[in-house]
Amino acid sequence: MTGKSLDDLEFAKVRAMIASFRLSEEGGAFLAALPFTTEQEELLRRQGYIAHILGLIERDGVPSLPSFPSIAEVMESLDEPNPALEGPDLLDLARYLQSSEELLSYLLQEEDESMNGLTGGGIDPDLISLKEAIRSDLDESGSVREDHPRLEPLYRRLEQVRRKRASYCSSFIDGNRSSVQSDVEALRDGRLVIPIKDGHKHTIKGYISSVSASGQTVFMEPFALVDLNNSVLLANNAILVAAAKILHELALRAKQVAK
After folding, report:
1. Residues with Cβ < 8 Å from 215, sequence gap 6 or more?
2. Given the DSSP bridges, would you call strands 206-211 and 191-197 parallel, antiparallel or unpaired?
3. Is residue 18 a contact partner of residue 12, using CB atoms and an 8 Å limit?
4. Is-contact 87 138, C-beta < 8 A?
């Protein structure tokens, strides 16, 4: 059919109107690329899809589905040799798969061979497994769950060294009332420090990390506190490394399934 005939039929306008009901960006792109056809067999196939879907809607109403987030950039990343996906990216992928699974479940709730060409008979089990793995490993913010089997012991270790550090600070302050400027420790760049009166800084064995604006207080790490601060930082770093490894493994799994 010629371009002029398509214009007369307002084909582009009709297609745009249909696309306005799309649930995903990918659905819109599919419709935009869908060619006009006069092939009888193809027309009958499309009519079969539409008749089946309209029958379901008439009987059960329009299904309520989770969102289909845009995953175009995620899919582009999966084409890279070593894909780097953040937690929210993986979570979007899981949400997309969840919505796809629910939509297909709705469409295939009754056996109808006419739908096989559109749905392929259902979602790939590997995709379902990937979705479940992402949901299992990540929380709703896209961060690796703190109770993940590989992170839980690391968080326990972090809590232990934090308690030990806090206990040391309390004991130090109680034992050096004449030297400390405050009853509580301070936090500087992720490290706990003790506020010491400037005139007493030479009586404390440790490092000076900073000085107050007035110059009357120096913030110090006694030598024992240096080790405790380092232990906390190392424990926290172990969590970050383990979480990054889990995200990387999920990304590699997604890449494998996407092939």
Report:
1. 198
2. unpaired
3. no
4. yes
SS3 249: helix
DSSP 8-state class, residue 115: G
How many of the other CB atoms lie within 10 Å of CB of 208? 13
Between the CA of residue 2 and those of 9, 32, 37, 154, what are the distances in Å?
A: 11, 18, 11, 67
Look at residue 180 in the predicted model and tell me its pLDDT: 95
Q: What percent of the chain has pLDDT over 90?
A: 58
Whole-angstrom distance, CA of residue 145 vs CA of residue 154: 12
What is the Cα–Cα distance from 239 to 245, expressed in whole angstroms? 10
* Residues 130, 134: Cα–Cα separation, whole Å: 6
Task: State pTM to two decimals.
Answer: 0.80
What are the tens digits of pLDDT across the range 207-225? 999 999 999 999 999 999 9
C-alpha to C-alpha distance for 194 and 185, rounded to whole angstroms? 5
| Residues 134 and 94: beta-carbon distance below 8 Å | yes
**Per-residue pLDDT, 249:** 96
Is the CA virtual torsion 49, 103, 97, 112 positive or negative?
Answer: negative
Which amino acid type is present at position 151? L
pLDDT digits (tens, 9 = 90+) for 143-178: 999 999 999 999 999 999 999 999 999 999 999 999
Rg (CA), the chain: 30
Element of type H or E holding 244: helix 223-258
In this structure, the dihedral spanned by the alpha carbons of residues 45, 47, 48 and 53, taken in order and rounded to 10 degrees, is: 130
pLDDT at 111 over 90: no
**Residues linked to residue 144 through DSSP beta bridges, in sequence order:** 138
